[in-house]
Amino acid sequence: MTIKEVQQEIIDEFSMFDDWMQRYEYIIELGKNLPLIDEKYQVEENLIKGCQSQVWLHAEDKNNSVVFTANSDAILTKGIIAILVRVFSGQKAEEILEADTGFIDEIGLKEHLSPTRANGLVSMVKQIKMYALAYQAKQ
């Protein structure tokens, strides 16, 4: 699946909910299903700077695709990173770098987060793009 297709799938899923309480519950549910980062990667250097909660993000190159694993100590934040991992994991570095993140606004996520969580979301996206840039430079 392309990044755009995964983003559209997420937009469609969020459109099924009537209110933001249901969407928050869904985000938390997504976090519970997040494939967890190996404990050996839950280290300081994998912490995303700029997040109110602790969020660890690890990337590795598998068959010329960037595969992400993550975890967070906060249930809502864990759901947010789960959405981003779902969109970007397994994609080529150049596709991640070129990807538009407008789907975040389309589902209304940023506007329904506290300012500190919204900043954390921006930091998460930035870190994902930085990993992609690093892998692209290696190729």
Structure explained in plain terms:
It is a single chain. This protein has helices spanning 3-15, 20-32, 75-88, 93-98, 103-106, 115-138, and strands spanning 55-62, 65-72. The protein is mostly helical and 139 residues long. The protein has one domain (3-138): Alpha-Beta Complex (Sufe protein. Chain: A). Strands 1-2 form a two-stranded antiparallel sheet. α1 crosses α3 (75-88). The protein is globular. The model has no long low-confidence stretch (mean pLDDT 94).
List the helices and strands and how they pair.
Elements: H1 3-15, H2 20-32, E1 55-62, E2 65-72, H3 75-88, H4 93-98, H5 103-106, H6 115-138
Antiparallel strand pairs: 1-2
**Alpha carbon gyration radius:** 14 Å
Average pLDDT rating: 94
- The CATH topology annotation reads as Sufe protein. Chain: A
Q: Summarize the main sheet.
A: 2 strands, antiparallel
The percent range for strand residues is: 5-15%
| Count of domains | 1
- Tell me how many strands there are: 2
Helix coverage percent:
40-55%
The global form is: globular
Query: Which strand order does the major sheet show?
Result: 1-2
- Which class of secondary structure composition applies to the elements? mainly alpha
Number of helices: 6
Low-confidence spans: pLDDT under 50, at least 5 residues?
Answer: none
Protein name: Cysteine desulfuration protein SufE
Family: Belongs to the SufE family.
Pfam family, one: SufE
Domain Fe-S metabolism associated: 12-130
Give the tags.
139 residues, Cysteine desulfuration protein SufE, 12% strand, mainly alpha, Sufe protein. Chain: A, two-stranded antiparallel ribbon
